[in-house]
Design a protein that fits this description.
alpha+beta; Gyrase A, domain 2; 2 domains; five-stranded mixed beta sheet; four-stranded antiparallel beta sheet; 7 helices; rod-shaped
Length: about 375
């Protein structure tokens, strides 16, 4: 017969599982924080170093000043070139830039005197359409032909329901800009940005001869560190989110396994109780099946014992019966019971005693009850 174990399997509680997951996530977040802080310090130092190495060539009335973002005063000044291929100017510019050890992508600043500014009122339209329309307006704004000019503009937003907008136009002679840009190129420099003295807004790189690759490189040097830092933060957040999702999924799996284990343990416990109940019921039924009824024992004793025998106490314990009483011939009771179909192995549990007044013998007798015949 199957006997289940008294000890049912135990499983970890779901609370302890989630506490462990939270602790692991906190450890991962702490490690990432340390790494990100160290990376941020390193990238910031590089970012600051790259910004200090950015050169600006300021064209004045008679000389070209060379400065960096870290210096308030010009580092060096060079006389204006006599032409785009002035060898002396180019050699001096190369020498100064070599001493500074700066990047070859520079910002070129034109003097305020070289810029013609105008304000016109134009219909509210797209920037591309404005640029095409302004080319026709340049004939009224500047005496030089359009092909000899560079220009850009900034349109102010229209107010309310007005259909007109103010457009600020900056016009520069093409020859002045081309000469400065050509001299820089002969010196091995690339113009990454073009500005005007006293104006915070840089020249439109789509309208002026600005090196596209140089512009991209300068923008990358300026914003690469913050961009990479943000990217690192995003990657870290994605990693943490992925780790959290994986741990949550693992936690759900563990929780499901714990619930299933608890359910199986409850089923095992229920089966164990049912098996115990069935075992006890089987034992009881077996005992009831093998033990004769008390009425049958009394009936057999009444039939078997002689009339001069009296029973004062009778007890049945399983397959044994115990008789206490008196008889005029108690010694004969052993043989009488052994000859019975119900009793066997009768014997006295205590010596016989004689009662002188009633002339009877007191006995204490034990006998086995035979199993019932089918």
């Amino acid at each position: 017969m199957l006997r289940p174990s008294d000890h049912s399997p135990t499983a970890p509680s779901s609370g302890s599982v989630f506490d462990g997951l939270r602790a692991a996530a906190a450890d991962v977040a702490a490690d990432w924080k340390i790494e990100l802080v160290a990376l941020g310090k390193s990238l910031w130092a590089r970012y600051a170093r790259d910004r200090r190495a950015s050169l600006t060539l300021g064209i004045g009335e008679a000389r070209v000043s060379i400065t960096t973002d870290a210096a308030e005063a010009p580092i060096a000044t060079i006389a204006l070139p006599s032409g785009p291929s002035d060898a002396e100017f180019i050699a001096e510019l190369k020498r100064v830039c070599g001493l500074i050890e700066a990047a070859l992508d520079v910002t070129l600043t034109l003097p305020e005197s070289s810029v013609l500014r105008a304000s016109v009122s134009m219909p509210k339209t797209s920037k591309r359409t404005l640029a095409q329309a302004l080319r026709y307006e340049l004939a009224h704004l500047c005496p030089l032909p359009v092909d000899a000019l560079y220009f850009d503009f900034a349109a102010s937003p229209a107010r309310g329901s007005q259909k007109q907008q103010d457009v600020e136009v900056r016009i520069v002679k093409r020859a002045d800009v081309d000469a400065a840009v050509s001299a820089c190129r002969h010196a091995g420099l690339a113009v990454a940005s073009l500005r005007f003295a006293g104006d915070a807004r840089p020249a439109d790189w789509r309208s002026f001869p600005v090196g596209k690759l140089a512009l991209i490189r300068s923008l990358w040097r300026r914003f690469s560190v913050p961009l990479l830092a943000c990217l690192a933060v995003v990657c870290g957040l994605v990693f943490l989110a992925g780790a959290y999702e994986r741990r949550v999924a693992a936690g759900e799996i563990l929780a499901n396994e714990v619930a299933a284990a608890e359910q199986r343990a409850a089923q095992v416990q229920q089966l164990r109780l049912e098996a115990q109940a069935l075992t006890a019921e089987g034992i009881l039924l077996e005992q009831k099946k093998q033990a004769p009824m008390l009425a049958a024992v009394l009936a057999e004793l009444s039939r078997t014992l002689p009339d001069d025998t009296w029973i004062t106490q009778l007890s049945v314990d399983g397959s044994k019966v115990r008789l206490e009483g008196s008889s005029k011939a108690a010694a004969n009771l052993i043989g009488i019971l052994d000859r019975s179909d119900m009793f066997a192995n009768a014997q006295f549990a205590a010596p016989l005693t004689q009662d002188a007044r009633s002339n009877v013998e007191r006995f204490d007798l034990v006998a086995e009850i035979r199993a019932r015949r089918p």
